[in-house]
Specification:
The chain is of the alpha/beta class and 427 residues long. It folds into 2 domains: 133 residues, Aspartate Aminotransferase, domain 1 (Alpha-Beta Complex); 265 residues, Aspartate Aminotransferase, domain 2 (3-Layer(aba) Sandwich), CATH 3.40.640.10. The chain has a 7-stranded mixed beta sheet with strand order 2-8-7-6-5-3-4, sandwiched between helices. Strands 9-10-13-12 form a 4-stranded antiparallel beta sheet, covered by helices on one side. Helix 9 links the parallel strand 6 and strand 7. Helix 4 packs parallel to helix 5, helix 11 runs parallel beside helix 13 and helix 12 packs across helix 13. The longest helix has 24 residues. Bound molecules: pyridoxal-5'-phosphate. Pyridoxal-5'-phosphate binds next to helix 4 and helix 5.
Length: 427
């Protein structure tokens, strides 16, 4: 096929895309010359849904008109505002409504979860994480380990891919858990690895961990809004995710948290409490005896930032309009598969895709390294950025590209590959 014919094929894929209209629900950044960027960076900061803007303005307006009465009056009163996010959040991660809550930030939630679920003893005190976890996760785990008086050198068990390999083999992770499990208090792994884009087998890891008596939690920063999950059925103990990546809720927006219902009645769990985790029926009696909610809301500490929740509600409603994360995943598999196929056909000898090729082991993101003498990956990245592509560069040497099913198009995948091709030209 000629390049022109191939672009026509991409245009046809766009025309047949059942989600094509959703792009109009988002603001697409533009280049100085007025053209729309090819925005493949929704894995880092999702674009702004128009609904998020609308809902935010409604809350600003409510605050102007009603002041403190906004807590109770009007359509979406602030007092129970987080509850308006519950159902859509639960669907995203495959949870019961009582198992999810929007609160804090991602790293803060990991800390709160570890306060409750990392309960080391003399013989079982290790935390299994990846060798190259996202730094914030590593720091959080390291500081928790120290907080309990253990030495991170000993108490942090770092999972690594095999020598010469970039991604994990599920059987290796399961072997590690089987071998070391008696000493592991907590397994904390990503649902989707931020650097490689690999989807881990959360169900198998949870089963293996529980067989050995470990608690199992997941960081879903790159999984929420990207792949469907069944946290409840998989019996995951806890999970946390941010809302500004595939969940398009704006920079630093409030995070999500999952706690399995089997922990909701356990009054002995240690926790760092606050008034918003207290039983809402008696919260405003302002008494000194803490009675936790029997839900994930028990882990809330503060009354939440409504402006941020409004943006999340706008984004979650937009995802619901698309048919939920299952509908997104259907397009995502096709679109990311299409991009991979084009990259391999056109540039297979100049780039390497480290994201696993199996559909069940990858989400919307492809992580590329450049295999060229005399041209570094960073130089190539700078060139494609200059040509109107927004994706991201992650040290030490990966270009991450994420076609997002809510607002990206097949033609953008096609145009991206042409731009990358031109950028790899060393002459
Ligand atoms: C994006 C991301 C974070 C960011 O943490 P914040 O607390 O939201 O700043 C943490 N961990 C992982 C794995 C991430 O991908």
């Amino acid at each position: 096929m000629t390049a022109t014919n191939q672009r026509t094929a991409a245009e046809q894929l766009d025309a047949q895309d059942p989600l094509r209209e959703l792009r109009n629900e988002f603001y697409i950044p533009r280049l100085p010359d007025g053209r729309e960027e090819i925005y493949f960076c929704g894995n880092s900061l999702g674009l702004q849904p128009k609904r998020a803007e609308r809902y935010l303005k409604e809350e600003l307006d409510k605050w102007q008109r009603l002041g403190v009465k906004g807590h109770f009056d009007a359509d979406f009163p602030w007092m129970p505002y987080h509850e308006f996010l519950t159902e859509n959040s639960a669907q995203l991660v495959g949870a019961r409504n009582t198992e999810v809550v929007a609160m804090n930030s991602l790293t803060a939630n990991l800390h709160f979860m570890m306060v409750s679920f990392y309960r080391p003893t003399k013989s079982r005190y290790k935390i299994l994480i990846e060798d190259h976890a996202f730094p914030s996760d590593h720091y959080a785990v390291e500081s928790q380990v120290r907080f309990h008086g253990f030495d991170p050198e000993d108490a942090m068990l770092l999972a690594k891919p095999r020598d010469g390999e970039e991604t994990f083999r599920t059987e290796d992770l399961l072997d590690l858990i089987e071998r070391e499990g008696d000493q592991i208090a907590l397994i904390m792994l990503p649902g989707v690895q931020y650097y490689t884009g690999q989807v881990l087998d959360m169900k198998a890891i949870t089963e293996a961990g529980h067989r050995k008596g470990c608690k199992v939690g997941f960081d879903l920063a790159h999984a929420a809004g990207n792949i469907p999950m069944q946290l409840h059925d998989w019996d995951v103990d806890f999970a946390a995710w941010c809302s500004y990546k595939y969940l398009n809720s704006g920079p630093g927006s409030v995070a999500g948290c999952f706690v399995h219902e089997r922990h909701h009645q356990d009054k002995d769990l240690p926790r760092f409490a606050g008034w918003w985790g207290h039983d809402k029926r008696t919260r405003f009696k302002m008494e000194n005896h803490f009675v936790p909610m029997e839900s994930a809301e028990a882990w809330q500490v503060s009354n939440p930032p409504i402006l941020s929740l409004a943006a999340i509600r706008g984004s979650l409603d937009t995802i619901a309009q698309a048919g939920g994360v299952e509908a997104l995943r259907e397009k995502s598999l096709k679109m990311t598969g299409y991009l991979r196929q084009l990259l391999e056909a056109e540039l297979g000898d100049q780039i390497h895709i480290i994201t696993p090729a199996e559909p069940e082991a990858s989400g919307a993101q492809l992580s590329l390294t450049v295999k060229l003498d005399g041209l570094s990956g960073k130089q190539v990245f700078d060139r494609i950025e200059k040509a109107g592509v927004t994706c991201d560069w992650r040290e030490p040497n990966v270009i991450r590209v994420a076609p997002v099913p809510l607002y990206n198009r097949y033609t953008e995948c096609f145009d991206f590959v042409q731009i990358l091709k031109a950028s790899l030209d060393n002459d």
